[in-house]
Amino acid sequence: MNDPQPTSDLQVTPLEGEALERDCAALMAASDPWLTLGYGFDDLLRTVRLPGRERYAAHVDGEFAGFLLLNLHGTFAGYIQTIGLAPQFRGSGHGAELLAFAEQRILREHQNVFLCVSSFNHAARRFYERLGYSQVGELVDFLVQGHSELLLRKTIGPLRQRKP
Questions:
Q1: What's the mean pLDDT when you consider all of the chain?
Q2: pLDDT by residue (tens digit) across 39-81?
Q3: Where are the domains of the chain?
Q4: Which fold has domain 10-161?
Q5: Average pLDDT of the residues in 121-146
Q6: Which 8-state DSSP code applies to residue 62?
Q7: What angle do CA 12, 80, 109 make, to 5 degrees?
Q8: DSSP state, residue 2
Q9: Which of 72, 98, 81, 83 shows the shortest CA–CA distance to 151?
C-alpha cells in the first residue's frame, strides 16, 4: 500500500523561535501518544527545548504542519526522538515525506535510523513498518505502567561496514 502523494510542497527548515517551540508542544499535548502517556504542555515544551537535538519545523503553504527532533549522538545515534504532524495534514503523504527527510539527514552520517513507538499506537506502528522499519526491542513499562515503547530500526548496514 502506497502513501498518498501530498498535494502541496512540504518545506522543512530548522526549528527556531519560541512561537514554533510552543506550536510543537501544543501539537503534542493535543495528540496521542502523548495524551495517553500523560504528558502536559510544559513537559512537552521542555522536550522540544532539550539541548543537543537537531530540530526541524515543517510547513505546507506557509502553515505549520509538523516537526522533527533528532538525536545524532550517543549509542543510538540516528534516533528520531519525536515526529509530529498536525491533524489536518495526516493521511496526506506529508508524514511519509517528513520521515523521509529525517532518514536522509540521519543516513548521511549513520547506518541506522531508530525510533520508538508506543505499544498502543497501532496506526503509527503500521505506518513505520510499511516504510521499512522493524522492531528490534521492547521497553516494557518504560514511560508508563502497562505500555511498552517498541524500538524500531531501519538500516543500510552494520556500523562496522560504514565507509568514511
A1: 92
A2: 999 999 999 999 999 999 999 999 999 999 999 998 889 999 9
A3: 10-161
A4: Aminopeptidase (3.40.630)
A5: 95
A6: T
A7: 80
A8: P
A9: 81
